[in-house]
Amino acid sequence: MNSSTVLCSIKHWCFQAMVVAVLVLLSRSEWVLGGLYTGEQSLGGICLAVIVLFFAVTFGLVLLAIALPPRLTKAMLRVLTISVAIYIFEPAIRALFFVPAKLETFQKIILIACTLMLAWMGSTLLSSSQWKRMQAALLFGGFVFVSFPILAVRATDSIQVRMPAGAQAQGATVVLLLDELNANASEQIAADIKQAGGVPRVHRIKTVGTATISVIPEMFGGPHMPRARVCAPTAVCDLSAIFDFSRLRFAPLDRVHIIGFHHPYCAAQGLASCAMFAPPNPPPITSLLCSFDRLRVGRRGSQCDWLPPEGWDVFRWRMRDATLQSPFWKSGGTLYAHLPFPHPPGNLPRADLTADYADNLRLASEIVAQVWRQGNERFGASFRLIVTSDHPLRPELWCRHGKYLETGCGVKPTGSEGLVPYILVGGNEAADSVPTDNGKIFTGKL
Ligand SMILES: [Zn+2]
User: What is the model's pLDDT at position 1?
Assistant: First the structure.
């Protein structure tokens, strides 16, 4: 082989490798959009990680292509191109009604094996010109799949948000959304409210989903999306519906203030004030690499473990302080605070999930009592407090967290799964109505 032939084949492999690298990046769209949606990654960090991954994949594959015999290189690049392209569509495949919501490791291995087999068949049967067309089609399909929801959200209608029934123009209401609050935690919270001089009216309501991502959109008037996932910087989708936070319209007269995390609440229109907080996260390149780690989640001491307890504690106290210092306390209106209490992890050294959750619950209950005292002092009889949650504790998720793999889980069923508290304190009891589930809190439909 002379030098120009070598150069030519390197150029050829380089192009093939770049196609694979672009497809790999398209398969990471959920990581990119999720980082922007939750505010957990900066735009600069995302760009850096994406560029590093692109060049790493391209160079890695070119080096491999030079090292392997040409026939094997061709097969390898073709199989990779097709497998990665199928991987881009994974969220849509997983949202199909016959695919179980949670895949076991052996099911994932079967899926990967089938993908590779399909890719192998596709790669051996295609001629060179057919392969070029196939590559173009895969790239085009990937781009359309990723960008369609981002464009589609532009066409969605705006949603007028209603305050929970009983909110008066002159009064002040705080809605505390305590993340992962079990229904049977009501007694403890009610006891602390009583001690702070309040008279709580305790109810239990159904939750419309099992995770924040599917419940909060419905709470603000969105459709029921049990398999919602992030599909645009301010929106979630499932196969049949889209919910975009930037389409939410709050009435300025309601003077709504928001303190929140995980969702882009501040993209909504008509808010009197809004503050978003991001929990601690691995640096962007580590975080992007961890997004490939689904098969390996659950290993002890993994770099990819989410919410490291140290940073988590700083984050949640910052959110508590922001709630107690919100401009709401001057202006009145409504304060909606989505707080990471009693959301795990906890900060007791060497505690298992049960002990940490009990401690977090104590902290959550103290915050509720503090908010009640502060509201009562500031607004008197016109103050109303609502305490509820998006969903109960999720042991199936938290038992796989690094800390609890070490210390143990120990969570027993509470007998009230699928229910969350709805506690009302103060306000006009006759004007208050209790929603049947937490998907209807801000819709006015009871
Ligand atoms: Zn949640």
Answer: 53
The answer to whether domain 159-445 has CATH 3.40.190 is no
Degrees (nearest 5) of the Cα angle 19, 22, 25?
A: 150
67 Cα: distance to centroid of ligand 1 (angstroms): 49
Section 306-311 average pLDDT: 78
> What integer pLDDT is reported at residue 280 of this predicted model?
85
What is the pTM (predicted TM-score) of this model?
Answer: 0.88
Given a contact cutoff of 8 angstroms between Cβ atoms, the answer to whether 38 and 287 are in contact is: no
Tell me how far the alpha carbon of residue 131 lies from the centroid of ligand 1, in angstroms. 45
Cα 281 to ligand 1 centre (Å)? 17
**Cα of 107 from ligand 1 centre, angstroms:** 27
| Pair 334, 175: CB distance under 8 Å | yes
- Among 186, 262, 175, which Cα is nearest to 420's? 186
Q: Residue 13: helix, strand or coil by DSSP?
A: helix
- CA of 325 from ligand 1 middle (Å) equals 23
Distance from the CA of 6 to the center of ligand 1, in angstroms? 56
How far does the centroid of ligand 1 lie from the alpha carbon of residue 200, in Å? 23
Strands 229-232 and 235-237: antiparallel
Domain ranges of the chain: 3-153, 159-445
For range 336-358, the mean pLDDT: 93
CA distance 216 to 324: 22
CA-CA distance, 353 to 330, in Å (whole number)? 38
Gap from CA of 210 to ligand 1 centroid (Å) = 8
Tell me how far the alpha carbon of residue 391 lies from the centroid of ligand 1, in angstroms.
6
343 CA distance to ligand 1 middle (Å): 7
Tokens 């210092």 belong to 325
pLDDT tens, position by position, 237-294 = 988 889 999 999 999 988 999 999 999 999 999 999 999 999 888 889 988 988 886 5
Cα(130) to centroid(ligand 1), Å: 48
pLDDT band at 226; cut points 50, 70, 90: confident
Q: What's the average model confidence in pLDDT over 6-10?
A: 71
Instruction: Please give the Cα distance from 377 to 286 (Å, whole number).
Output: 47
* Long-range contacts (CB closer than 8 Å, 24 or more residues apart) made by 310-316: 310/280, 311/279, 311/280, 312/279, 312/280, 312/340, 312/345, 312/347, 313/347, 314/280, 315/261, 315/277, 315/278, 315/279, 315/280, 315/340, 316/340, 316/341, 316/343
- Rounded distance from Cα 269 to ligand 1 centre (Å): 23
Residue 87 CA to ligand 1 centre (angstroms): 27
Q: How far is the CA of 250 from the centre of ligand 1 (A)?
A: 22
Q: How far is residue 213's CA from residue 179's CA, in Å, rounded to a whole number?
A: 12
